[in-house]
Each structure stands twice: as C-alpha cells, then as structure tokens.
Write a structure and sequence with these properties.
33% of the residues lie in helices and 19% in strands. The chain has 184 residues and is α+β, with helices and mostly antiparallel strands. It is globular. The model has no long low-confidence stretch (mean pLDDT 82).
Length: 184
C-alpha cells in the first residue's frame, strides 16, 4: 500500500500482522498483560514454542521473535527486574557468560562478521520491554544493511525465526535444565 504525507513524501506501508500479539501485549489466563520473558521463563515445557534455546541457573537465552537480523538472541534473567543494577552479582555474571556462549554458537552456525550486543534500560532508551532487563545479541555481516532500509524503510531478514531456532537448538543442548531432567 502506498500513501502520501502532508509534505508530499511517498510512504509505502508493509503490513506485519504477526506482530499484533506483541503490540497488544501477552495476556495470562485471567486476561492480564504478561511479560513474554517471564512467561517463557516460567514454562520450560513450552521452550520450542517460546523459542528458548538455553536455560542456565539464573538466566536464559531466547530468540527474538521480531529480529533485527537472522540469529538475533535475547539473554534475560528469570527474575522480572527492569534495571541492570537490580540484578544480583550472580545473575550479572551468568548473563555475561551467556553472551560469550551465544556468540560462540552463533559464530559456529551462522559465521557472522561481527555482533551488536546491547542493553536498552528504560523506555526512553528504546527498551521495548522496560520492566524486564535483557541483552540483545545481533549477528552482523558485511553488507547486511543494503539499499532497502535506506530507500524504502524495509528490512529483509533472510530466514524465518522458527527455521533459525531449529538450526540453533542442537548447538545449545546440554543446558542446566536438560541435565536436571536426565538425572531424574
């Protein structure tokens, strides 16, 4: 769909209906808004559906359902806290280790040329989920920003999230939760 702004600029509209669930917010069984990270953290039986790749003692790795690039991961504590300073030293240390672990696995499977790693704390800083601190790790390749975002405000991600999840999941096996299940 093409439209024109008041100043004559032509804008193209790209519809993304799969994002509506995210925009409206996840809701629990009682209809209250939910934090998708808390929901994923509390339900290991739904790891594949929630795109959880790895569970540690204090934090976990989950794929971003709306990635900036193929392989875009989030690393989050299980606890719902909104600021890095609210984390325990153990949580911060494990998150740092999980960043390195995720980078290693992404390099192994996707061979990126580099990474963007960052934390947005607070809505004003761009946090889409300001109540649950998390780290973004985004693989980058030379030339992955092309004319499309510059000319037409469109981003191309060459693989769907579920496809990347299926390729990454075996590399993250052997996590703490898997080890606990095997001992039972």
């Amino acid at each position: 769909m093409v439209g024109v702004t008041g100043d004559g600029k032509v804008l193209r509209t790209v519809f993304t209906p799969w994002r509506l669930k995210y925009i409206l917010g996840f809701k629990n069984k009682k209809g209250k808004k939910r934090c998708f990270l808390c929901d994923a953290a509390e339900h290991p039986e739904h790891d594949a559906e929630n795109l959880v790749l790895y569970r540690g003692r204090n934090a976990f790795i989950i794929m971003n359902r709306y990635p900036y690039n193929t392989g875009h991961l989030l690393i989050a504590p299980y606890r719902h806290v909104g600021d890095w300073l609210e984390l325990t030293p153990e949580e911060r240390a494990e998150i740092a280790e999980l960043i390195a672990f995720a980078e290693e696995k992404l390099r192994e499977l996707l061979a990126p040329d580099g990474f963007n790693v960052g934390i947005n704390i607070g809505a004003v800083a761009g946090a889409g989920l300001p109540g649950h601190v998390h780290v973004h790790i985004v693989p980058r390749w030379k030339g992955d920003t092309n004319f499309l975002p510059v000319v037409s405000d469109v981003r191309l991600v060459p693989e769907n999230v579920e496809g990347t999840y299926e390729r990454l999941r075996p590399l993250f096996s052997g996590n703490d939760q898997d080890q606990k299940k095997s001992k039972e």
